[in-house]
Each structure stands twice: as C-alpha cells, then as structure tokens.
Amino acid sequence: xxxxxxxxxxxxxxxxxxxxxxxxxxxxxxxxxxxxxxxxxxxxxxxxxxxxxxxxxxxxxxxxxxxxxxxxxxxxxxxxxxxxxxxxxxxxxxxxxxxxxxxxxxxxxxxxxxxxxxxxxxxxxxxxxxxxxxxxxxxxxxxxxxxxxxxxxxxxxxxxxxxxxxxxxxxxxxxxxxxxxxxxxxxxxxxxxxxxxxxxxxxxxxxxxxxxxxxxxxxxxxxxxxxxxxxxxxxxxxxxxxxxxxxxxxxxxxxxxxxxxxxxxxxxxxxxxxxxxxxxxxxxxxxxxxxxxxxxxxxxxxxxxxxxxxxxxxxxxx
Length: 318
Fold this sequence. Notes:
alpha/beta; TIM Barrel; three-stranded parallel beta sheet
C-alpha cells in the first residue's frame, strides 16, 4: 500500500511537506457541502453559487492571518466536490486536504447497508489510492465519520470500523463527527479496537460537550479533542468554549486540541452576515491571548497540532 511519505500531507494539489506549512490551519471546515434534507437550502455551500464568497474569505484570511491549510471534511453523501476544492486551493493559495468516509446515519449512502465492514473499507481504500470520482485527486484524511447519541448505531459502528481499517491500510488519520459532542469515548473505543492508534484520531465537536472530564480522558488516551465549532453561538457560547479549552490546556493537554469553525451552511459566510471561517482568528484567539496564551501556544493549537494529527509526526516550531 502506498502510504504518504513521512512528514507529508496529501492535499488536493498533491503531496506537501508539513514543514512548509508556516501559518495556521483550520482543522475542520467545509468549502462545498449539501446536507439539505428538508428542502430549504440552508445547509448548503454550492460549488457555483457560493464559491466566490468562500474563495474571497480564504484569500483574506491568508493575507491577514497567514492561513495556510484547510482540512475539508466533506465526505461521501455530503455533497463532496473535489474539483471545486482544487479550484479553491488554486485561487486562494491555501492548501486544502480532501476527505473520504461516511457521515452519520441519516446521510449514509446506499452502499453502507449493502456492504460489510471489509467491503466498505475497500471502497475507502480505492478512493485513497486511485482518487475521487475520476478526478485523480486523492483524500488526505478520513472524515468526518459520524455518529449521534452516546453509542453509535449499528450502521454507524460499521462505518467507523471500516474507516479505521482504511486508515490502517493507507496511513491516513481519521476525524469523527460526534453529534453535539456526544459519544466520543464510544467512537474512540470502536476505532482503537480495530487497531487504529488513538493519536491518529480526532474526536469531533467536543466544544459542544460541557464535560472537561471526557476531554481529559480522550486527550490522555492520545486522541485529539476537536474544538471545531468556534463561533456557532446557537449551539454553544464562545465563553463556554474558552473555559473548556483553557481547562484542557491547564490539565496538560494543549498538544491534543484542534481548533476550527465548521462552516456548514451558506448563512455562516461573512457575505451573508455570518461569522465566517475567520471567526477563530479575528474573535476567539484574541480572547485566548487575553486569557494568557502566548505565541507558542497559539502556534501549537493552530499549526503544529493539526499537522501532527494529519501526519502522525511532530513538526518543528516556527
């Protein structure tokens, strides 16, 4: 199996040395998306209608804050369009990592019911090795593999197990969707029982779970704890997010936290009055600095941690 080279990211434009990523990353975003099951068009980032606004935001963030990398976790059944991702990377100068996997059960595609765990893993491995939808563009991460509730459903467990096997076969890391932050420990148990090391796993949406004990347990296992819905005030206040992040840092686990905004509908775009992809840099990180974070901690949280998660290897400090 052709694993990525050590210390190398697999982006939509090809392989990229992790050490060449000098600015911050967004660890969980969507640039193209279609989760519209109710017909109102809200949970959509259309590759035509919204592309200009997405590209404008990323370009501004590269110019203002040095944004260097976006981990784009739109996978099978979520409206993925890797050609649009390649265009965004090309036009913004920001590297983009594409994903493969299956989201949580309401968004599963028909093969999840039709195939067993090993067959599903083979589907993912083929995309990772051969490229997505005939594009030649290869995923650089598995995600966002999802579940909802405290325990994954049978179908969700099957998908998580398949993702773990594909990660082991290809050398990629795996990011999850834990609905409203719940079920992360159960996800991690399923993945590690399959043999996937915890340090190749990011458990998603933990900033929506006000339980520092769970965060500490995940981090102590070696897994990454994703505070990846920063700015989504309808789900959780940034006050709570900041408190939870500071608690994890103070417990000695700063090297296990990942940060992002999870823009998942066009109403979140700045052009439509939303907080945008830049809320992390423009609003949240200044509050983290005011609480005592120095430049090294900010670099750890926004650059070194996501690069280590993706590659499994440390990168040098800026």
